[in-house]
Amino acid sequence: MKAMIRVALAALAMSLSVSAPSHARQDEASRLYQKSVVLSQAGKYAAAIPFAQQSLAIREKELGPDHEKVALALNNLAVLHYNQGQYADAEPLYQRSLAISEKVFGPYHAEVASMLNNLGELYRTQERYADAEPLLKRSIAIREKTAGPDDPEIVAALSNLAAVYSQQSRYDEAEPVFKRALAVLEKTRHPDTALVLSNLAHVYINQKRYAEAEPVLKRSLAIAETIAPDLANLAQALNNLATLYLYQDRYADAEPLLKRSVATYEKALGPNHPEVAGVLNNLAALYKKQGRHDEAISLLKRSAAIREKAGLGSGRT
User: Fold this and answer.
1) Vertex 103, ends 98 and 106: CA angle to 5°?
2) Residue 140 domain boundaries
3) Are 82 and 9 in contact (CB under 8 A)?
4) Is residue 7 part of a domain?
5) Which candidate, 261, 253, 177, places its Cα nearest to that of 210?
6) Closest to 163 in 3D by CA, of 1, 2, 316
7) pLDDT per residue over 6-29, tens digit each?
8) 68 domain-assigned
9) Which one of 159, 188, 217 terminates a domain?
10) pTM of this prediction?
11) Count of other CB atoms within 10 angstroms of residue 259
């Protein structure tokens, strides 16, 4: 059984101007890019990818392979692949985007910090923690240098770094970093507050601090459902509260939350995303404890197939 970590990437709609340069091909690239953004914001990542690819191709042809707009287009295409769990497709796009950004903007620029965060988060998702940690620390250092320690843009990398620690059972290191991220968000009533609360509760659950975890998770769920109706954040909050109940043998409380989490993740990210696999594993664990072995096996097979397609391990615990 696993509480789940989920973190926010830098925004897809980064600072691409739709009006400059103004000749026809660049206008077409901007139009295609904007169409991909609209589809992405609607959760239609697969439909967005062809438009992002076409926009990138025009940028490369018209501006050359090392232009800043090419770097942003590469990042945006990578985010779309990442959001579908297509990590092998996302990685080289992120790497190239980062290399161009460092060349164009220099090593201490906000765009570089964003690219470092996104690539670091990809490595965290792939459980490549030794690769992720230095990138995320560098992203944080850039944000601190350029915008200060309380800038909301620093939260994604803070949360990602804390997640790296948490997933390695380095809970004493994870907790203060999550709390720092939460303190920044709470000053602005940021929608990602639900996300960081849920991640902090993940630490408490794994330390068996259940009495501390439950109010944090209930607050996370309330925010996800009302103040910030982000479906993926909601799905995570549902899963993590259910996981707490599983550890407490509260199966009747856990099952409807897990089923709702699966349905919400499927709606937000599609039926074959690795996040769906994680909740399926938890629901299978519940069924196994209840002696519902055929149902458990069916879910585990589906979960394994999803993770194999994404290039991950079985994910079973």
Assistant:
1) 95
2) 107-188
3) yes
4) no
5) 253
6) 2
7) 444 443 333 333 334 446 777 899
8) yes
9) 188
10) 0.82
11) 15
